[in-house]
Design brief:
Layout (H helix, E strand, L loop, with lengths): L4 H23 L9 E8 L7 E3 H11 L3 E4 L2 E10 L2 E14 L9 E15 L2 E15 L3
Parallel strand pairs: 1-7
Antiparallel strand pairs: 1-2, 3-5, 4-5, 5-6, 6-7
Length: about 140
C-alpha cells in the first residue's frame, strides 16, 4: 500500500495530538487541552466512572478531580487511524496507573486501568483536534 506525504503527515499529526492529550492530563495543563479538543467536543469517561459531557464541562471536572492524585501516567499506544479528508476516526490503547494522594506516605495506593480510547478527529484552522473521545475499559487493578 502506497501512502501520500499528506496522509503520512496527517497520521503523524494525529499521533502527536493523542500524545499531547496524555501529556496535558498528566501535567494538569488544562489550558493546553484547548489545543487538543474542539470547543464543542463530546468526551465520555463513563468506562472509568467519570462523566459523559461537553468538553467545557469535562475540562472543569478534570481540574477539580485530578488533584486527588499525586501522579498519573497515560501511556498511549497502538493508534489505529482511518483518514477521510478533514476528518478521521481512531482507536488507541491506554495504560493508566494512578496514585491517590495519601494522608501519610506509607498509605499511598496505586491502581491502574487498561483502556481503549475511541476517537473522532477533525481538521480545524489550527490543525487536527479531537471532536469526540470515548473510553472503553479493558481491565482494572487495585481500585480504591
Amino acid at each position: 500500500m502506497s501512502r501520500t506525504l499528506v496522509e503520512l503527515s496527517d497520521r503523524w499529526d494525529l499521533q502527536d495530538l493523542v500524545t499531547r492529550y496524555a501529556t496535558c492530563i498528566d501535567a494538569r495543563d488544562f489550558e493546553g487541552l484547548d489545543r487538543v479538543f474542539t470547543p464543542d467536543a463530546r468526551v465520555s469517561y463513563e468506562a472509568s466512572g467519570g462523566p459523559d459531557d461537553a468538553y467545557p464541562a469535562i475540562r472543569a471536572w478534570l481540574a477539580e478531580m485530578l488533584p486527588v492524585f499525586t501522579a498519573t501516567q497515560h501511556l498511549m499506544a497502538n493508534l489505529e487511524v482511518s483518514l477521510d479528508g478533514d476528518s478521521a476516526t481512531g482507536r488507541c490503547m491506554c495504560f493508566n496507573p494512578m496514585a491517590l494522594r495519601p494522608v501519610e506516605e506509607k498509605d499511598q495506593q496505586v491502581f491502574f486501568y487498561g483502556l481503549w480510547y475511541v476517537l473522532e478527529f477533525v481538521r480545524a484552522d489550527a490543525g487536527w483536534r479531537i471532536s469526540r473521545l470515548t473510553q472503553q475499559q479493558a481491565y482494572h487493578h487495585n481500585l480504591p
